Amino acid sequence: MTRCRRWATAAAAGASLLSAAGCAAPRRVSPFGPAGRAVTAVVPITDAIILTDGARPYARDLAFRRDRLLRALAAGKPGAVASRVAATVALIDRARAQAPGCVRFAVRAGRGGLSLTPLDWSPKPVRDTRTVRADVVVVGGEIESIVTAMAAADAGATVALVHAGPLGGLTADTGGNLRYFDCIPGTPHPRQQAALFRQGLGMRTGDWVCIPADTDGKIRAFLRRRYAGITALGTRSYNSLQIRKGAAGVSSITTEEGMRLIGAAVLDAEPEGIVAEKAGLPMSIDVPNLAYGLVFDVNGIRPGDWPALRDRRRYAPERILGAAGVTEARLAASADGREALRRMRRAMRQDHVMANQVYQLGYQALAQGFDLWMHCLAVRKPGADVTWLNARRCSSGFNVTAPIDHATFNSLSYRLDRTVLQHDHDLARDAEFAPIRATEGPQLEAYLRWVAGNPALRVRLPAQFYVRRASAAFATDAPYGPADFVPEKPDGLWMTYQMDYRNLTPRDTWDADMIRKAWSRGAGRYVWACRGSSLRSAVPNLYLLNRSGVPMEWYGGLRIVQGMVNTGAVWAAERPWSGSD
Question: How many Å apart are CA 151 and CA 568, to the nearest integer?
């Protein structure tokens, strides 16, 4: 995996914040009970992504815009519009204060100003229809959530596992399709993960990567068969959870369906930290702006197709241009076309493939060849879809799991203008992603068929992106830091990963400065011993098993799921629900 420090830096903050806006009458749009009252401001500062008519920004997006407005004001950039900046900041503050558990808002603009209306939030408590008490409440359906729940149950705890979407989360067919499991070969694995992978998912000995299909069904059957102490409970959305707090911490979590969950310890293992946000933990928006991954399945692969997919001569730049019917001169007429050709020629020199029984790494030229294919399509048959895709796609190579006649390719990535949360978007239905399903998927299939010479090969797109980006980080008491990094592999459960800022797009000059500092602090520190205390928060019984356990300085290791699996298993072994933590 290569490091890419060629950043496409966005315009400096403040430059795009000065457009005028009107306001529409507040409108109730929440699908979950009565929405909170809209908060309105007159003549605020707007922007084309977060504060624009029809937008549905997350509370963390509003926090980001508030921060950047105040920074721009302090730097003197807004000038004569300081009063409008103040009005916008006040609008955001009032909206978040009046709906403290709201994850997302609807924006309406018109002549009277700008309004923010809560979504998936109600000021009234949900009526409880069922109460589930357990030693540990785990929120999240990811592999790390399940392994930690198993480890807690093995340590004698009863566990309530509440999840939105499939069990397996990112790795499931209807999740991010990350069936190339994000771990590092050679790292240790807790025995619960071994049991889940071998007995639950049927993965062969030694395989920690190639997750099979029907993850959700296999995990449900395994938990029913082996873990009577774990109760799995589904809910429609994490966004609508209601959190109640008392002196001892989180006293209960209630789903919109009326399930009330009470536990001595609450583990927020949801990828985006929604429980932490709703519990009011301090939130930082100084996090790297990484691209979103598209992990796709390829079915109908014949044994003879693999040599073709590894043969760079089959997708040399000249062959791609010939197949597309585009001359180099015609492609080079656009700056984007010239850059796509340059990247492809570089990938042809640098490509590598490391083969294993069940997975293969590299395929840089194969991935970059598809990007060139799409830029040729933009020349031959220009259109809105291909323009949208080519402006956002990142191609840094494929990692591939290849069991028999099908494979999972991890992945192409996309720079998006707005925040997307895991398990809160739908590639098959959301209008914004129509170019991916209407054009990218069919063209991926056409390209791979052409390379392999196999007209029966089929591409299956995932239900969601693999959200590598953290849009916010929530404070933990003792996050991983310099003292946790060691020169040699320690005893027990540990993790390793280098800083990885591929496909990074700083949003402004402050983002770029943050990344420079992170690189100088984190570079060279790659191995750390996992410890459960890294999950503690200021809320006494709330623990965070997600991106927040590692501060921004060490973000490279933060996106590797195995680190969270190992940390969760260590946490469970410490039995924090028993009061000994």
Answer: 8
Judge residue 225's burial from the number of C-beta atoms within 10 Å of its C-beta, 0-12 exposed, 13-18 middle, 19 or more buried: exposed
The first and second tokens of residue 379, run together, are 């020349």
Query: What is the domain partition of the chain in residue ranges?
Result: 39-119, 130-288+469-578, 293-465
- In sequence order, the 6+-apart residues with CB closer than 8 A to the CB of 553 are 481, 517, 518, 521, 522
Q: What is the pTM of this model?
A: 0.90
Give the distance, in angstroms, between the CA of residue 421 and the centroid of all CA atoms in the same chain: 6
130-288+469-578 CATH, one of 3.20.20.410, 3.50.50.60, 3.40.190.10, 3.30.1340.30: 3.50.50.60
Counting as low any pLDDT under 70, the low residues of the chain are 1-36, 78, 403-405, 498, 551-559, 580-581
pLDDT in tens, 287-306: 888 899 999 999 999 988 99
53, 150, 194, 288 from 226: Cα distances, Å: 51, 9, 14, 40
Task: Please work out, in degrees rounded to the nearest 5, the angle formed at the alpha carbon of residue 231 by the alpha carbons of 227 and 234.
Answer: 135
Q: What is the pLDDT of residues 522-561, one digit of tens each?
A: 777 778 899 999 999 999 999 999 887 776 666 555 567 8
- DSSP character at residue 250: E
